[in-house]
Amino acid sequence: MLPFKLVYSEKYYLPIGEHVFRADKFRMIRERLLQQAVVAEGDFISPQPASEADVMLVHSPLYVNKLMEGSLSAREELQMEIPYSPQVVDAFMLHTGGSILAAERALQDGMCVNVGGGFHHAFPDHGEGFCMINDFAVAIRSLQKRGLIRRAMTVDCDVHQGNGTAAIFGGARPDGNPLPSSGAMLVQQAPVMTQGSSKDVFTISLHQENNYPFVKPASSIDVNLPDGCGDAEYLAWLDNALSSGLRQFQPDLICYIAGADPYREDQLGGLNISIEGLKQRDEMVFRAARARDIPVMSTFAGGYANRADDTVTIHCNTVIAAAEVFRTAPSQTPR
Ligand SMILES: [Zn+2]
């Protein structure tokens, strides 16, 4: 048995047909974890779909109505890069409910993994890049609304920048002016950390600079990595971003977006991170949280390896890393 729960439903499957986004990966992750006896059936809990009211804590009523009524324009559907259907909307509502449940359980158990979610390219008024609803942003707003948390931090390690999340939580400086896009500001080859504004949610994104999205709204900390970045450099930048973020901001909850696509054999990624490097990345995030007694909820986001098996291995390793870190007593690291 794990020292925390995994949130999963068979209905996480997204009926999007033949697609680079393997919508069956959620089921494959569950099966692999059970097969390898990393987890037991009793470790899984089932989510309920998020309500429309929950989703509207982040997304505009106009956009939510379009999703519910099936009235997205052709352009809006194209921008989503997945085909629209009411069944796809239902699946996203369930992933979102899963992230809400995972965040609640994280507060109770210290850790929880949603075996899904991580749809960080969804903006308040539109979806893009395979993302319809920003599940973990909804979870944060839902917990804040109920007074369960005050402040949250997102740690986004998908290879693609968390543009939707940045737009949701960091859209304006205190003077109300929109932040300039970091993509437009930063043209250096070396990784650069930029710092934007933050109020009750602090957003960190560690991503490949020369990749989608080409306009990158500013996160609280953006680490723009060069093409081909390897394990040592990647882990050093993550360490740097985590230490810097946690020095500036003390969250009541960390939402970790554990994308598998920084992997060197990913079809949509251009970094050079090994499977072992990605597991070390997961451990680093979990240790940083555990040392400070900050609850973590983890979501999976992207993963498009040439071999789907590798994507599954990387996601399963996130669960294994969490089990290793959360089975041990928290370290005595001062807060
Ligand atoms: Zn991605």
Describe the structure.
This protein starts with a strand and ends in an 8-residue tail after the last helix. It is of the alpha/beta class and 335 residues long. The model is unreliable at 171-191 (pLDDT under 50). It has helices at 25-35, 52-55, 61-69, 74-80, 86-109, 135-145, 163-169, 182-185, 231-248, 275-291, 308-327, and strands at 5-7, 44-45, 111-114, 152-156, 192-195, 201-208, 221-225, 253-257, 296-299. A nine-stranded mixed sheet has the order 2-1-3-9-8-4-6-7-5, sandwiched between helices. The chain has one domain: 3-Layer(aba) Sandwich (Arginase, Chain A). It is globular, with a radius of gyration of 18 Å. Helices cover 39% and strands 12% of the residues. The longest helix has 24 residues, at 86-109. Bound molecules: zinc ion. Zinc ion (ZN) binds next to loops.
Key features?
335 residues; alpha/beta; Arginase, Chain A; nine-stranded mixed beta sheet; binds zinc ion
The CATH architecture: 3-Layer(aba) Sandwich
- Which spans of ≥5 residues are poorly predicted at pLDDT below 50? 171-191
Number of domains: 1
Number of helices: 11
Write a brief caption for the model.
By secondary structure, the chain is an alpha/beta fold.
